[in-house]
Amino acid sequence: MTGTTADRQRLLLLVPTTTYRTEDFMEAARRLEVDLVVASDRPNVMSGEFPDSLLTLPFSDLPATVRAMQDYAARRPLDAVVPVDDLTTVASAAIAGALGLRANPVAAVAATRNKLEMRERLARGGVPSPAFTSFPAGADPRAAARTVSYPCVLKPLGLSASRGVIRADSEAEFAAAFERIGAILASPDVRELGPGADRILVEQFVPGFEVALEGLLTGGALETLALFDKPDPLDGPFFEETIYVAPSRLAADVQDAIRRCSADAARAIGLSDGPVHAELRVGRGEDGRLRASMIEIAARSIGGLCSRTLSFGTGMSLEEIILRHALGWPIASLVRERRAAGVMMIPIPRGGVLEDVQGLEDARAVSGIEDVVVSMHKGQEVVPLPEGSRYLGFIFSRADTPAEAEMALRLAHRRLHFAIR
C-alpha cells in the first residue's frame, strides 16, 4: 500500500471480490501518489498488517457500511470514494453522500442496479427505450407467455454481463427462458445480492445493432470519452458480447443521436457526476432513419479489462481520469488517442473445466495485437451464458483504422485453442 504524507489526499476504493479491475485502479492511484484505502466485501489476507488501508465492508448492508466509514473518516478523513464495479456503486454513493464528498444521489445509482426501475425512469423521462413489463419470478410461465408480444427479451433485474438475458420468439421459448432465469435467480450467489431476485423483466426486442458509450458526467453535463462499435450481431437467443472497437465508424449524425440519448438517459435517471457506461441499440425507424434506443446505463465505467483499450491526452488511462475527477483534480485532456483500438472478450464455447490454453504466443504475434490475457486458470470451471458471467479472457489490439483493429482481434482469436473438459 502507498504510504501517507501530510499533504497527500486519501481515496477510498470499493472493490468487490469478483471484479477484474482492482489492478488497473491501484496502478492509477500509484501514479497519482494518493493515499489509497481499499475496501472489499471479503477479508484480505494482508488486512492484519494494514488495518487502516485494507478494510472489510458489508456492501449489501448500506447503513452498516456508512456507519463504519463515518467512524473511519473521523480518524482518517477521506477526499474521494470510487467504486470499481457494479456491485459497489450504491455503497460508494451512500458513503460519499454521508461524508459530503462528490457523488450521485443514492436513489439514482440504485435505479441503475435495478433494470425495472431504470426502465420506469427512462419511460417517465421520454427516453427512447424498449416497451416493457415484469412478472414475479414465481409466476406461471405459460400464463405470462400469453400476455406479451414477440420477439421479446427476458432479464433478471440486477445481474450484469448479459447473465440471464434470453430472447424468446414464441410462447414455448418464453416459458423455457422464464424457468431458466428462475433457476439462476434461485442460485445462492444471486440470492446474496439482495433485492431484485424476485421479478423478471420482459422487454420488447429492438432490431438493429449495438453500440457502447463511455462517458463522464460533471454537473449533469455528459462528456463522451469513447463510442464503441460492436461489429458482431447481438440478436440472441443469448447476448454474449465479444468485440468492441473505437472510434465508431458510424456517421456523425448517428453518433450525435447516440450521445443525446445517453445524456437524456442519465438526466432521466438522476445521474449527475462521475463515469457512466451506456449500452444502446441502433435501428431504423418507420422513416428509414437510424435511431438510438437506450438498453442500459450504469453509474460506473466499462467492465472487465476493456478499459485498457482507452488512452487519453498524453497517455492517461481511464482509471486515472476517474480518480482525478473524483478528487476534483484537473484533467489535461479527455480526448481519446487518435489510433483505433479494440478488445475481444473471449467467449466460452462450452461449459466444463478449463484444462489447457494453446496458441497464446501465436495470437500475440498477430500484427496489431497488444496483448492477450487469459483471466481464467487451468482447473477452473467455465460456465457459458446465460448462466455464466465471466469470460475466458481478453484480446487487445491497436491499429491505424477500426477495421484493422477488428481484423487483428479475429485473427488472434483463431490462433487460440481452449481445451475444456
Structure summarized in a few sentences:
This protein is of the alpha+beta class. It has helices at 22-32, 62-75, 89-98, 106-112, 115-124, 141-145, 171-185, 188-191, 252-269, 318-327, 360-364, 402-414, and strands spanning 10-15, 35-40, 54-56, 80-83, 132-136, 152-156, 166-168, 199-204, 209-218, 221-229, 243-246, 274-284, 290-298, 340-346, 352-358, 369-374, 381-382, 393-399, 417-420. The strands form 5 sheets. It has a 4-stranded parallel beta sheet. The protein has a 4-stranded antiparallel beta sheet with strand order 5-8-6-7, with helices on both faces. Strands 10-9-12-13 form a 4-stranded antiparallel beta sheet.
Describe the structure.
With 421 residues, this protein is α+β, with helices and mostly antiparallel strands. Among the domains are: 101 residues, Rossmann fold (3-Layer(aba) Sandwich); 74 residues, ATP-grasp fold, A domain (Dna Ligase, domain 1, 2-Layer Sandwich), CATH 3.30.1490.20; 83 residues, ATP-grasp fold, B domain (D-amino Acid Aminotransferase, Chain A, domain 1, 2-Layer Sandwich), CATH 3.30.470. The strands form 5 sheets. A 4-stranded parallel β-sheet has the order 3-2-1-4. The chain has a 4-stranded antiparallel β-sheet with strand order 5-8-6-7, with helices on both faces. Strands 10-9-12-13 form a 4-stranded antiparallel β-sheet. A hairpin with a 5-residue loop joins strand 12 and strand 13. Helix 1 crosses helix 10 and helix 2 crosses helix 3. The longest helix has 18 residues. The protein is globular. The relative contact order is 0.12. The N terminus is likely disordered.
